[in-house]
Specification:
It contains no helices and nine strands. By secondary structure, it is mainly beta. The chain has a five-stranded antiparallel sheet with strand order 1-2-9-4-7, with no helix packed on it. A four-stranded antiparallel sheet has the order 3-8-5-6, with no helix packed on it.
Length: about 120
């Protein structure tokens, strides 16, 4: 099985492990588990992560540039070092008015109680 995770037990400079590609969204998995995953993304100017909903909370943190995160039609402009939690089951989109890099953390647990 081929893994796309980054090397464990080694220090990484996250903004350097992924590069921008013109007119593209590039994603690299940092770690993937059944209970969630962490990815890093480089999003070029003008690109949009399509409007969607997820059954899980997602934490987005900007590590380079400025990102626009739209949650239930409310626009949030995030700068380097800022983060936001996109609640589960909430319509959202991520827009690149200029290119940026983010870390996306999805937590896939804690919702069993809500289904009871």
């Amino acid at each position: 099985m081929v893994t796309t995770e980054i090397e464990k037990s080694k220090s990484h400079i996250l903004i350097e492990i992924i590069e921008y590609v013109p007119n593209s969204v590039v994603s690299k998995t940092i770690i993937r588990k059944t209970t969630g995953n962490i990815s890093i993304m480089a999003i070029d100017t003008g690109e949009v992560l399509a409007e969607k909903t997820s059954p899980f909370d997602t934490f987005i943190q900007v590590i380079e540039g400025i990102a626009e995160v739209v949650i239930d039609t409310k626009s949030n402009i995030l700068q380097v070092g800022q983060g936001i939690i996109i609640p589960a089951h909430t319509l959202n989109a991520i827009k690149a008015n200029q290119r940026f890099k983010i870390i996306s953390t999805v937590i896939k647990s804690g919702y069993d109680e809500a289904l009871i």
